[in-house]
Amino acid sequence: MPSRLAVLASGRGSNLQAIIDHFDNLARERIAKVVLVASNRADSPALIRAATASIDIAHFDTTDDGSMLLELLRKSRIDLVVLAGYLKRIPPKVIREYAGRIINIHPALLPAFGGEGMYGARVHEAVIASGTKETGVTVHLLDDEYDRGPIVAQWRVPVEPSDTADSLAARVLNVEHVVYPRVVEMVAILQQLEAMTSA
Ligand code: GAR
How far apart are CA 70 and CA 66, in angstroms? Predict the structure, then answer.
């Protein structure tokens, strides 16, 4: 049985699209499939992408203690929660119930250039301002802090002298689209192996 993925996204949803496409391409060999896309923003383009792919969508409120999100995840029998451009804090009660089963992608080499308020163009602006010659992509398991928790994968991306935040963001995003679906697949495989050996 494929693992059941929920993707949480606040914005454009290009990583969501890469994940949907990846598992669609694997067809019957797929180890996981996206069964729910949920957003804190009712107008998120990610929800339109999901609806187009005939995936269940949901909008949830982030002003509660996480009960609404938890209920959605339970109802859809979610095995793994994938954050793809989800920019709000995940409440502790959700992290507790899904410990080790929430993964996040960040467009820099954590722990550098991460933390509260570090998302989107701000990350790439800070990278350029620092003068560093390389940045990258980090995928990690979620802790109770922004952009923290055990790192599962990192991939380096060069910073060119002529880069703007936009050109750097585009180079990093291309790498995200390759790395994230494959890391999600790997984490789903590990989860299934663990379930088999502990059964
Ligand atoms: C991606 O670059 C992702 O790494 C970043 O938001 C973007 C979402 O793009 N996430 C963070 O900055 C988390 N701190 P997308 O909506 O097109 O996938």
Answer: 6
